[in-house]
Structure formats: structure tokens, C-alpha cells
Amino acid sequence: MATTPQVIGASILFVFYGITILYFVIKGSRKTKNINDYALGNINFSPVFVGLSLAAAMTSAATFIINPGLVANFGISGFLSYGIFFPIGSIVSLIILTKSFRRYGQSVNALSLASWIGGRYKSKGYALFVAFLSILLITFIVLIIVALTKVIAQALNANEIYVLAITTAFIFGYMMFGGANSMVYTNAIQAIVMIIVALIMIGSGIQFFENGITGFFEKLFNIDPNLVKPTNPDSPLFRDFFEIAVAQIIVGIAVVCQPHIITKSLLLKKEKDVNKFLTTATIVQFLFFLVVVAGLYARLHFPDKMQNGVPLNNDSFIPTYVISIFSGGISALLIGLLVIIGLMSAGFSTIEGLIQSLSTTITTDIIKPLFGSKIKNANKYITINRIAIIALAIVTFIVARDQILHPNLSVAIFAQNGVYAYFSIIFTPIIFGIFIKNVKTKAPLIASVTAMITYFMVYYGLPSLVNSGTIDLGYINTYLSGAVRNPAIAAATAIVLSVTVGMIIHFITRKNISKDK
């Protein structure tokens, strides 16, 4: 539990943090006149600020709070997966995809990922399909809200459900007004705080290295030999090389295809700013990914995964670790409060982008195409956007409450299941839209449907058949059995099959066109 000075300090800090965010929201809202301003802003942002904003949005509370908890549970195998292989895939993908996506996004005046796909393939139906799929991203919003709730509740010794209600109301409340004009600035400030906190978190376990790297590994080995193995057979997520490396690299490549990430480059007004934007984003982002090493420190600090006789669940590991190690004198207290703000910043930075992009998609890509003929005043779309945010807040609170009270290992599994399904389905249309000329809509559309069927079949269909004994897939049964299944397996399978089917359809349709000529 937090000490009285920690509770008082955290309370003051949270009030100050909230006032600072509201200042930028009010400042940004004055320049937000329509839905275009809310989605993309009307300010000429610095590429460094946008790069910091992207790094903060891409490496969220999952990176700073939830994933380190999985590393604490399962050891080096989790660090390799989330701290090495996933970053390799995502950073390389970000660099390759951003420039081409931005060029086409500007040419079709895209406000969202759904409108980009609709414009690229000249298909309103395809845009609507992607827009409805975007609702799956609410699972990631739930993850971040749960992570923030854990941090704030630990710092204040408060009831988690009450904290959840207040946090949800505050975040969704201010996001009704700010949009891109305020978000870039708040994200950039949050990223600067996160950089400082990332360095503190990475260095927080220095005392465990008094006997060097070998001594560090020996300490982990003495707790559980599986903690130092590159693969952990007792884990539901890191059992072999395919699960740790191959699947995570594939997922890392595709994770960039989320609206709050890939559309960030559209905030840049000048082409010459892109390189500076990418350089800033990739350097800072890689630092953030390394924070998962704190999970190993947390496990050494709580070797039996208990605090005062109470078991620690996955999502409570890092908040409890931070409160515990920074509970000494005034200097430790101040550092601890800074770390708490950094963990909160990791959540706020991403959730702002998710709420902004998802509400924009609902407004411009679902409501407008379906009911636009009945809405004569364009300014009403700002009001509709705010109503959409209220609806998202209600759903988020209900689902997040259930995840806090009844977690299945971690909220990460719930979030990954939704987010991984989403970007598995839209990966091929984005890749084809960027790199293949004269592609017919049929190829990416069939690829998207293939990915959707494959993902849900691998994650839900096959496990029920395997567990009932209807089919036996040999070693593959390992991925499909148990109460906790790895969404990365379903995502990697769906992505590979989707790209393959899409390429086959593309070559068939191209040959048919050539014959007709």
C-alpha cells in the first residue's frame, strides 16, 4: 500500500496533471471549428512534436504497465518477445509504410483509415466495412483504462471501480472538445515525461546487477529456471521460437496499421518534415519498448508474486513495484511520483489517439455515409462526434469493470484479441494500396474477408474442435488448447494467409485484364 506522503503527493500531482491537460484542451478547442479540424488539426505542427506524439501513442500503457507484468510472470522469453522481436517488426514497418501512406492520404484528403481505404479503392462499401471493424479497437481502450485505474488506485489506496469511473469520465470528457489541435501538444509533453520515466524504470533494477549479468540471471534462475530460458514451456504466450519471434515480428509489422498510428503522418503539412518525424519517433519508441525489462526487476522484488501475503495478478505487478521501491525518503518519493505520472502519460497518450480516431471513424465513415442526407448542417458532425465519444465511454466503463473484476490472466489478452483481429483484416488492403499499382478492389477485399474468417477460426473455432477431440493437429494443438490462448498465433496465421490469397487474386485478375486487352 502507498504511504500517507505518497497518497498526498499523488493527489496533488493528479490535480496538477489534470489542470495541465485541460489547459491544452481548451487552447486546442478554440481552433477546432469542424470535424476536419478535430481529426487532423489546422496547426502547422513541428515534426519533432508529431514524432514524439507518435512514439507516445504507439508505445502505450501496454508497454509500460501490462507487458512488463507478463515479463514478470514468464521471464526472459517475454522480454525477447515484447522488447526485441516485436519492436523490430513495428519500427521497420513504420519507416517503410509511413511515407507512401502519407502521400496517398493527402491526395484523397483522408480523415481516417477507413476513408483512406475507401478513397484508395474507390469503394464506399469497403470504407464502411473497415469503419465497422474499427469498433474492435475499443478493446485497446479498455486495456489502457484498466492500466490507468491500477496505477491511480495503487497510488491513492483507492477503490478501483470508483477510480475507473472518474478516470473514464475525465478522459472521454476532455476528448469531446480537444481533438488533434490539443492532442499533439499533450502527447509531446507526455512523451518527454515518458522518456525520463523510461530511463528511471530501466535503471530501477541496478541493484540486481551487483554481480553482473551472470548474477542477475542466477537470481532469476533461483526463483524459477524457466525465467531465464529463451522459451518458457509453462507460458501460454512464449512457448517456442515461432510464438516469441516469428509471430511477434509479423504482428509488429502489422500493428502499424492502426488508425491512431499510421494516420499520424497526415498531421505533417510538409513532405520535407517526414524524415525528422520518423527519426524522432523511432529512437524514442525503441527506448520505450525496453521498459519491459522492469518486469524482470519486479519479479526479483516479488519472487513469490505476493505482496504482504496477497497474490499479485499480472496487471498489478508494475504499479505495485513502483509504489514499493519508491517509498523511502523525500527523493525516492519525488522520483516515485514522477514515475507514476510517466505511467499515466503512457496511457493518456495512446487513449487520446484511439478515442480521437475511433470517434472520427464513427462520425465520418459510419454516420455520414448512412445518414448524411438527413444532416444538412456540416457543423452538426462535431455534436455527433461528441455523442459517439459518450457512447464509447459508457461501453468502455462496463467492459473495463468486468476486466478488473474477472481478468483472464491479463487484460492484455482481451485487448490483443480485438486489436490483432482488426489489423490482421486491414493489413493487406493497406499494403496493396501502397505498393501495388492498378490493383482491383476484389483482391484486397477477398484478402480482408479471408483474414477475418481465419483469425476467428484459429482463435475460437479450432480450439473448440481440438478440445472436444473432434480433430487432432499434432503440435499445433499446443497453441489451441488451454484457458489462455495467444492472439498473436491467430493474427500471424491470418496475415500470412490473407496476403497469399490477395496476391493470388491480384495475379488472376491482372491476367484476365491482359487477355481482355
Describe the structure.
The chain has one domain: Sodium/glucose cotransporter (Up-down Bundle). It has helices at residues 4-29, 35-40, 47-58, 61-74, 76-107, 113-120, 124-133, 138-156, 160-175, 180-203, 212-223, 241-255, 259-262, 274-289, 294-301, 317-325, 330-371, 380-405, 411-435, 442-467, 477-480, 487-516, and strands at residues 306-307, 310-311. Helix 8 crosses helix 18. It has a two-stranded antiparallel ribbon with strand order 1-2. The model has no long low-confidence stretch (mean pLDDT 85). By secondary structure, it is an all-alpha fold. Strand 1 (306-307) and strand 2 form a beta hairpin. Helices cover 74% and strands 1% of the residues. The chain has 22 helices and 2 strands.
Mean pLDDT: 85
User: Biggest sheet: strands, sense, closure?
Assistant: 2 strands, antiparallel
CATH topology: Sodium/glucose cotransporter
- The helix tally amounts to 22
Please indicate the percent range of residues in DSSP E strands (runs of 2 or more).
under 5%
Number of strands: 2
What is the succession of H and E elements? HHHHHHHHHHHHHHHEEHHHHHHH
The CATH architecture category equals Up-down Bundle
Radius of gyration: 23 Å
Estimate the helix proportion, in percent.
Answer: over 70%
Q: Please mark out the parts with pLDDT under 50 across 5 or more consecutive residues, or reply none.
A: none
Provide key terms for this protein.
two-stranded antiparallel ribbon, single chain, about 525 residues
Strands, helices and their partners?
Elements: H1 4-29, H2 35-40, H3 47-58, H4 61-74, H5 76-107, H6 113-120, H7 124-133, H8 138-156, H9 160-175, H10 180-203, H11 212-223, H12 241-255, H13 259-262, H14 274-289, H15 294-301, E1 306-307, E2 310-311, H16 317-325, H17 330-371, H18 380-405, H19 411-435, H20 442-467, H21 477-480, H22 487-516
Antiparallel strand pairs: 1-2
